[in-house]
Write a structure and sequence with these properties.
alpha/beta; 11 helices; binds pyridoxal-5'-phosphate
């Protein structure tokens, strides 16, 4: 029998979160960002579940877009990094993929290949990818007829600090983007990640691009997904495989880093960093058993971790421990591990079966 360590995927919660994003977007439409294997939830599973609602999907690379097509879904798929090779443009035309072209090299390929509909990336301050605002006029002029015959769909930019309500950078990037794209009011615009959905007054133009919020985790510093009205989609759970008392003065696990101050009933849970549970989550990171919150003890091993069962004396071997999900948000665990929910969700390894509820 396989071990009962699983990631349960709640597709109703996913749809709830998408519908919230769409409602927040108002007259804009929300393309569902499903890159990185649907943020660890399974790209095909997620895309199929959203296919009745989402009019477009967005991914990082062409392999992910092809997975959506091979699953039989017909929505246009936006390639957020454009194409990585000239030959990929043929696939884009054939499958209605919309690359976001971000550099002159990609535009050169476009000039000598089959031409899909595409977007242009504008660098408004993130300084990862995109054309500078002041060169946009020349870039569009250089596209010749592609700019006016419907092949150029519009402009995309990405925010650096939308997760931080105290930062002025999002307003400044928005102003730069508006100025840079004002000459082409007939073309579409897309700026907003999940965090932009939670900024009041933030224009989302024609298409927003929510990712993390669809999965119920928080895009905002200092808030959990449920505090923002999101429903967790993934519940990561694993069985208690042993319980014991450690005596006052005894230590638990590698490095003997946690030492019992008093006799303590503890349990071992069959999950570890080999499953994608973060090794940096230390003592006091929350988990839950039988609906009660408990805490981790000591260091996370590759296949196991220890929990304090003082608060759940009825817990027995075989009971399932929730590492994150509806009782403990992935955002809380991420904060204890010094990271973000994005990394935890995308990091659950292939050893953990995803099971749909
Ligand atoms: C260009 C772009 N748009 C949208 C998203 C979605 O962002 P989030 O998951 O924060 O909503 C990402 C994610 O990294 C991205 O790179």
């Amino acid at each position: 029998m396989p071990r009962s360590t699983v990631a349960r995927i709640n597709l109703d919660a996913l749809r709830h979160n998408y519908r919230l994003a769409q409602a927040q977007a108002g007259s804009a439409r929300a393309m569902a960002v499903v890159k990185a294997d649907g943020y660890g939830h399974g790209i095909v599973r997620v895309a199929r579940a959203l296919a009745g609602d989402a009019e477009k999907f967005a991914v990082a690379c062409i392999e992910e877009a092809l997975a959506i097509r091979q699953a039989g879904l017909g929505q246009p798929v936006v390639l957020l990094q454009g194409v990585h090779a000239r030959e990929d443009l043929r696939d884009c035309v054939q499958h209605d993929f919309e690359p976001v072209m971000h550099c002159h090299g990609q535009l050169d390929w476009l000039a000598s290949s089959p031409q899909p509909r595409f977007w242009l990336k504008v660098n408004t301050g993130m300084n990862r990818l995109g054309f500078r605002p002041e060169e946009l006029g020349a870039v569009v002029a250089g596209l010749g007829p592609l700019a006016s015959n419907g092949q150029l769909l519009g402009f995309v930019t990405h925010f650096a600090c939308a997760d931080d309500p105290d930062s002025g950078m999002t307003d400044s990037q928005t102003r730069v983007f508006e100025g840079a794209t004002a000459a082409w009011p007939e073309l579409m615009r897309s700026v907003g990640n999940s965090a932009a959905h939670f900024r009041s007054g933030q224009p989302l133009y024609d298409w927003s691009r929510p990712g993390i919020m669809l999965y119920g985790a928080s895009p905002m510093i200092g808030k959990t997904g449920p505090e923002l009205g999101l429903q967790p989609v993934m519940t990561l759970e694993a069985p208690l495989i042993s319980t014991r008392f450690v005596r006052a003065g005894e230590s638990v696990g590698y490095g003997a880093s946690w030492v019992a101050q008093k006799d303590t009933r503890m349990g071992m849970v069959a999950i570890g960093y080999g499953d994608g549970y973060p090794r940096h989550a230390g003592t006091d990171t929350p988990a839950a058993v039988l609906g009660k919150r408990i805490r981790l003890l000591g260091r996370v091993s590759m296949d196991m971790l220890a929990v304090d069962l003082t608060g759940a004396p009825e817990a027995r071997e075989g009971d399932l421990v929730e590492l994150w999900g509806t009782t403990v948000s992935v955002d809380e665990v991420a904060s204890c591990a010094g990271t973000i929910g994005y990394e935890l969700l995308t990091g659950v390894t292939a050893r953990v079966p995803r099971v749909c509820e």
